[in-house]
Design brief:
18% of the residues lie in helices and 48% in strands. It has helices at residues 2-24, 36-40; strands at 42-52, 58-61, 72-76, 81-86, 90-99, 102-107, 112-120, 123-133, 143-155.
């Protein structure tokens, strides 16, 4: 019985070693892309804001829509702080953190912007809900929570 077991083990051993070698080669490859936290470091300007009036109706705003579009520049720093500038009226600071695919901005005044984000080269997006005033005919003129997807372009130089 021991001889039969030994012969069977010797016959299957090369197959098991081949399988183990193949499985070891299937591990994750080391990424040549920077991690998303370091990819976010730098200055970013909002180039498009898609405001969802309802779940299925949205309005894309670009800098050409000067009456509604707000110029937003965010600088993410290596110490997990940020500077946030909107138009010429707001200049705020705070801290930022990443958990999985969620970016959270904690402003010094206690307000928070959070949501899923992506970074791909010099383009980034942030999908969040904000309390905004939407004038008639699309809104009530009162502050309402709306989904907004911000698209940012990295500012070089």
């Amino acid at each position: 019985m021991n001889n039969r077991f030994a012969r069977r083990a010797l016959k299957t051993l090369p197959g098991l070693l081949l399988l183990a070698g193949l499985m070891a080669g299937c591990g994750k490859k080391k990424s040549t892309e920077p991690d998303t936290q370091s990819a976010l470091i730098g200055k970013w300007e909002a180039t498009k804001e898609t405001v969802y009036i309802t779940e299925t109706f949205s309005i894309p705003l670009t800098p050409a829509d000067t009456a509604l579009f707000r110029t937003v520049v965010v600088e993410f720093k290596t110490d997990n702080t940020f500077d946030f500038k909107m138009d010429t009226t707001a200049n705020e600071q705070g801290t930022w953190k990443i958990e999985g695919s969620t970016l959270t901005l904690n402003f010094e005044d206690g307000s928070v912007i959070t949501g899923p984000y992506t970074v791909s080269g010099d383009l980034a997006t942030l999908d969040t809900n904000l309390s905004i005033v939407i004038p008639p005919p699309f809104g009530t003129g009162l502050a309402q929570s709306k989904r907004i997807i911000f698209e940012f372009t990295r500012i070089r130089g």
